[in-house]
Amino acid sequence: MTVIAEVAERFADAGVTGWLHAREIDGPGEVAVSADTPVVLASVFKLSLLLAVFRAAETGEVDLEGRVTLEAGARSGGPTGIGAMFDQVSMSVRDLALLAMTVSDNAAADALVDLVGFSAINRATASLGLSTTCVVQRSREQTASMVRDAGVADAASLAPLLTDRRVLRTLSALRPEHTNRSTPREMTALLAALWRDEAASPESCAAMRRLLGLQVWPHRLASGFPFDDVRVAGKTGTLPTLRNEVGVVEYPDGGRYAVAVFTASVRTSLTLPAADAVIGTTARLAVDHLRARTP
Q: What are phi and psi of 148, to 5 degrees?
């Protein structure tokens, strides 16, 4: 069985449709499964945002040590970080970036979008030749679109409906043409550029790699590489039925592999361990294949 067939089989066993791309960062090898299909980024859009923030810092448009104050009730909500806090928060731009990447803090990310703007985000990715990648919504606008599409009053009213297939069919946030989007191949290209110090200055790339390495979620990409001497850095993304992660796997022998896995589940349950785990499983299959072909 080919690696592509095996990856497809694992996706099917987990009850998901999957899109995957894995590449050697320092070589030509790749594994591609529908890798040029546009996909919904969900919170993976924060990777493009991170690049724009550090690019803006290099030109002096943004001060990474400058402080931003987010008032309670006037910032984006969310289940983690500042989005879940009660009171006024003031912190540096670089600490907002840390929260956006490590715990996928929506309030922190949206504050950074407010700071740099959509044009800067999309210019940054376009400069790397990523023609499909596009960021058009903050997290709060994505939530607002789901509330509007579902015909309910607010996010609290939406939450109980997010396992209802009839409601999910109405949500434009689950269709790439209406929201933040990319392809698996373009996401691994962005990661490879970061790891080769080509996306920004070497100092900025190192700082971004550090933030990606601090992500706290171990249940997707990292679950496929349960070894003390293998490092995994990544960014997850989640919306109803959608589970994603993009990241880099680094082996002690110097092997470096960029991987992007996007999935859409047949089931509408909010908790689907098999759909989470298959991201790590298929990433491991792809990376093992790339390592096996290395002399």
A: -65, -45
Distance CA 109, CA 273 (A): 26
User: Per-10-residue mean pLDDT for the chain, 295 residues long?
Assistant: 96 98 97 98 98 98 97 89 94 98 97 98 98 97 96 92 94 97 98 98 98 96 97 98 98 98 95 97 98 77
Q: Are 249 and 259 in contact (CB under 8 A)?
A: yes
Q: How many CB atoms sit inside 10 A of residue 107's CB?
A: 24
What global pTM score does this model have? 0.96
